[in-house]
Amino acid sequence: MDQKVADLPRGPLDAYRNKASFNWKEMLHFIDGEEMLQFKQHVFKTLENDPLFARQPGEDISVEKKRELNFLRVKQLFRYNFLTKEDIMANPWKAVFLDDCLGMYDWAMVAKHGLNKGVR
Question: Domain of life, per the record (predicted)?
Answer without folding.
Answer: Eukaryota
